[in-house]
Write a structure and sequence with these properties.
The complex is a heterotrimer of chains A (about 180), B (about 325) and C (about 425). By secondary structure, chain A is α/β, with parallel strands linked by helices. Chain A is built from 4 helices and 8 strands, in the order βαβαββαββββα. Chain A has one domain: Rossmann fold (3-Layer(aba) Sandwich). In chain C, helix 7 links the parallel strand 15 and strand 16. Classes of the chains: A alpha/beta (about 180), B alpha/beta (about 325), C alpha/beta (about 425).
Chain lengths: ~180, ~325, ~425
């Protein structure tokens, strides 16, 4: 990213805000699926993995009697833009079970164009045929290029395309250049 | 760098990066349906001027698992080993639309020459006595993942036994293993050591008994019967007596020691014991890892990391 | 060509055995008519900044005709030679058919005369077909004017055959020239045997393969008393062997190529067959020893071993490509750049010594003096020029110096009293 002429950083959520969003999402997942039968939580490498772990932990608190499987999926082999920009595979995919008939809660930090989620859907299909895939994200920043919509959202944040959205355990940060903010 | 012609292009960091991609590919290969769409629409052409069914199939499997299309040109039985036809062959295939050439030839330096005749990516699948870079990568993957050391071989003792002088596998392995910090010992009669062996950064032993009890990896090379003709070794039994892996020597290997071989084996020459009976044998793993590492190489050169491989300096 | 051809070489410095002096030279009707200061004439050939000496004589050129005319012909090779400052070249006998009989020898000589650019002096083979089994007809070839005999391209492997050849040749006033290579030690060899070839994974050509045969032949010279010339020395060990042989008073002479004074085996690390040559390019320490041999007179002559190959022949894998590089047009530039000999030493290495060894010293390698045949080269050791493989007169393009800058260039060449090269361009 080119260093902007001037940078304005806005914190949208702080650490507590993240925690509350994750708790709420976990409850919504359990409510929407009327329990946790056949639910599998899968985080997207690498930004969604720590969030998936937290959601998984929170679900474990709500429904302590049974364990929900937890996995991670790397989409670098499924991107539709491999020749257009460099792809460096991050950490490998770990799917703990056959996903056939499962309800997969696919977890990522930021939903933007939707292309990464499309790649993840294709990747998941190579591990079985899920009954359903539900998308959970901390931030939906708009600008979809594909007909993809989230099922569980931490916060909707309208952004400019030049903005950068960073999600971490201590919160969500939007970085804008002064011109785009103008 | 755009091509993979020699391990000399790779520093330890670049090797480590490729091994990491290999982990991804190994995971894919473990699935019930080992296929991803990463190289869909790309064409990989195997151009083999020297017979090698196993390496060719390994590369073709790798390409197919990444959803690439494959083309095969196998010239070993025809008379087209002369240079003129070599250039014509490459240019003709390139005109059909090839994104990557995988080239094997009995003359060292041919893959480098091929890069002059096409814009496609070129992967060296073995040239003369010079290099076989994907073999070294799969060997490094096998060793590091067996020991769980991460992307280093620091402190590991590796003994390479056999006809080093005429072995592209040995040259490539020596380069990669030493870069990753291993202590490499070459075990061969003086007639089968490379000229100026001191410049390779390795130790030398003149009998397998010198290394078998202390080595962490015993890497056996194939001893070709043809070597007997040029007075390089008097005869097979003398070779086996000093350099062959038999049951007695296998019994002296350390419990954690790995036994490896690039294949195909010459049973009764360098291998006098069935490797299937050796707990340390990684020979079959090498074959599986060969597909993973060739997938890693093809993915990296045809659309992975920026500008293909990062420059080793 | 009976023409009253008269012109003055003006403003140059004449190089002779007895001295180097700024003098003009008048050439008339094929001979040197006058040497003096401030001469004038009907035609002036400007030699400002140049040395003027007898024309160069190459002991070792492959003209490829008959047999490989796609690479070079006697005409195109002669032209390349003339541009390089040569007025005579010894044509190597590895043609097809080989120069092992009078018919081929006379054909080659006649083709040279037809081209009229340099004197083409055919050499003969030592063995029939260069096969190394039976001696060629030395006597009838000598009667046809052949003075140098060689199987160049190969060495004579059989020591008994070599002994007989030397004994037989002794009475005929001819000179045997050896390409020293014990072929059993160089089977499949692609380049110098050393660290470079080891890492490149190609078979090597060990120095000892040259030195063993050289040593053998020096002892055979000692035994038989016949003279011998050694082609293209390439190793430090070879220089020392010849040095000791000369100290012992043996009748041996030796040549070195420009490329063995300038280029090393590392150039082959890209597997480009352009640099593949026999004997191969070796190491810096070999170059150092060869230069020392040139300086102390152990090496008598520079010989180009000009070896043209058509482009498709060199576009092969390194181990399959034929060995050889061009040399006639760049020899002076390379040697001057690499060694920077004095003008007299240049004349000695390029003209006086090789003329004597080739047996043409009654008309080449002569002093620039009144009455002498006008075979003259006018050359500038300060001219810096860039070599372009597309602007060479040779039919082939395999020069290793393409794109390199050389210091030293031949400017004009006079052959039999006619200007055949003027300002670096051939006039015919």
């Amino acid at each position: 990213m080119n260093p902007p002429t001037a940078l304005r950083e806005t914190r949208i959520l702080d650490a507590d805000g993240i925690r509350r969003a994750i708790t709420r999402i976990a409850h919504e997942v359990v409510e929407r699926n009327q329990g946790i039968d056949n639910v599998v939580v899968v985080g997207m490498q690498t930004g969604g993995v720590w969030i998936a772990e937290r959601i998984h932990e929170a679900i474990g608190t709500i429904e302590p009697l049974r364990k929900v499987p937890l996995g991670a999926v790397d989409v670098s082999m499924y991107r539709d833009d491999i020749s257009l920009r460099p792809v460096v595979p991050s950490a490998p995919t770990r799917i703990p079970c056959d996903l056939t008939g499962a309800t997969v809660i696919l977890v990522d930090d930021v939903l933007y164009t939707g292309r990464t989620v499309r790649a993840a859907l294709e990747a998941l299909n190579d591990h079985g045929r899920p009954r359903a895939v539900q998308l959970a994200v901390i931030v939906d920043r708009g600008h979809r290029e594909l007909p993809i919509r989230p099922d569980f959202v931490g916060k909707n944040v309208p952004t400019h395309m030049a903005d950068t959205v960073t999600v971490g355990p201590d919160g969500v940060l939007i970085s804008s250049t002064m011109d785009s903010a103008g | 760098m755009k091509h993979l012609l020699s391990t000399a292009q790779l520093d330890a960091a670049a090797i480590g990066a490729l091994l990491d991609v290999g982990d991804h590919m190994a995971e894919i290969n473990a699935r019930p349906v080992p296929k991803v769409p990463a190289l869909r629409g790309k064409t990989v052409a195997s151009v083999f001027f020297e017979d090698s069914t196993r390496t060719r199939l390994s590369f073709e499997t790798a390409a197919k698992r990444l959803s690439a299309d494959t083309m095969t040109f196998s010239a070993s039985t025809s008379s087209v080993n002369k240079g003129e036809s070599l250039r014509d062959t490459i240019e003709t295939l390139a005109a059909m639309g090839v994104d990557a050439f995988v080239v094997r030839h009995k003359s060292s330096g041919v893959p480098e020459a091929v890069t002059q005749w096409t814009d496609a990516v070129v992967v060296n699948a073995g040239d003369g006595w010079h290099q076989h870079p994907t073999q070294a990568l799969l060997d490094a993957f096998t060793i590091t993942r067996s020991f769980g050391d991460g992307n280093t071989m620091s402190g590991r003792r590796i003994a390479i036994v056999g006809d080093i002088k005429h072995s592209r596998v040995a040259r490539s392995d020596i380069d990669v293993f030493t870069k990753m910090g291993a202590e490499v010992t070459l075990v061969a009669p003086a007639t089968l050591l490379p000229v100026d062996v001191g410049s390779y950064g390795v130790s030398v032993a003149h009998g397998i008994d010198e290394v078998v009890a202390s080595t962490d990896v015993l890497y056996m090379l194939r001893m070709q019967k043809e070597r007997m003709d040029s007075a390089l070794v008097p005869d097979i039994s003398e070779y086996s007596a000093r350099f062959g892996l038999d049951e007695e020597r296998a019994g002296r290997l350390q419990p954690h020691a790995l036994v490896m071989h690039p294949g195909p084996m010459n049973r009764g020459v360098e291998m006098l014991v069935d490797p299937g009976t050796l707990p340390g044998s990684r020979i079959l793993a090498q074959v599986a890892n060969g597909v993973s590492m060739r997938m890693a190489v093809l993915f990296t050169l045809l659309g992975g990391a920026p500008n293909g491989l990062s420059q080793g300096d | 060509m009976a023409r009253k051809n008269e012109f003055v070489i003006k403003g140059g410095t004449v190089v002779n055995h007895d001295g180097v002096s700024a003098l003009d030279v008048r050439v008339k009707d094929g001979t040197v008519a006058e040497v003096g200061e401030s001469l004038d004439g009907p035609e002036i050939l400007d030699a400002t900044g140049c040395f003027v000496s007898s024309g160069f004589v190459d002991l070792h050129t492959h003209l490829r005709e008959p047999g490989k005319e796609e690479a070079e012909t006697i005409e195109t090779g002669s032209r390349a030679a003339a541009i390089g400052g040569y007025t005579a070249v010894v044509a190597m006998p590895n043609t097809d058919p080989a120069q092992d009989n009078v018919m081929v020898v006379e054909f080659v000589r006649a083709q040279g005369q037809k081209a009229g650019l340099v004197e083409v002096v055919p050499s003969g083979c030592i063995t029939v077909g260069r096969a190394g089994t039976t001696l060629a007809p030395f006597s009838s070839l000598a009667a046809a004017g052949v003075r140098i005999f060689t199987d160049d391209g190969n060495g004579v492997q059989d020591p008994l055959l070599m002994r007989r050849a030397l004994e037989y040749s002794r009475d005929l006033g001819i000179v045997l020239a050896q390409h020293c290579e014990v072929s059993r030690l160089t089977e499949g060899a692609v380049m110098h045997e050393g660290s470079c070839c080891s890492h490149m994974g190609v078979p090597g050509w060990p120095s000892i393969a040259e030195e063993l045969m050289l040593h053998r032949d020096i002892e055979l010279v000692r035994l038989t008393g016949a003279p011998m010339h050694f082609l293209h020395l390439s190793t430090a060990g070879s220089v020392e062997l010849v040095r000791r042989a000369k100290a012992d008073g043996l009748p041996v002479t030796a040549e070195v190529t420009p490329h063995h004074l300038a280029l090393t085996d590392e150039l082959l690390s890209g597997y480009d067959p352009l640099y593949k040559v026999n004997p191969p390019l070796r190491t810096m320490s070999d170059i150092g020893a060869l230069k020392a041999g040139v300086a102390d007179g152990t090496i008598d002559a520079v010989a180009t071993d000009h070896a043209p190959h058509a482009p498709h022949a060199k576009e092969m894998p390194l181990d399959q490509a034929p060995p050889g590089m061009l040399g006639l047009e760049t020899a002076l530039g390379v040697v001057n750049t690499a060694v920077a000999p004095t003008p007299q030493r240049i004349a000695e290495l390029f003209s006086w010594n090789p003329a004597r060894i080739a047996g043409v010293h009654d008309r080449h390698g002569r002093p620039v003096a009144v009455g002498e045949p006008a075979n003259i080269a006018v050359w500038n050791i300060n001219e810096v020029w860039s070599v372009s493989r597309d602007r060479l007169a040779s039919k082939s393009r395999n020069t290793p110096y393409h794109g390199m800058e050389l210091r030293g260039r031949n400017r004009h060449t006079i052959f039999n009293g006619n200007v055949v090269v003027k300002e670096g361009k051939a006039l015919r």
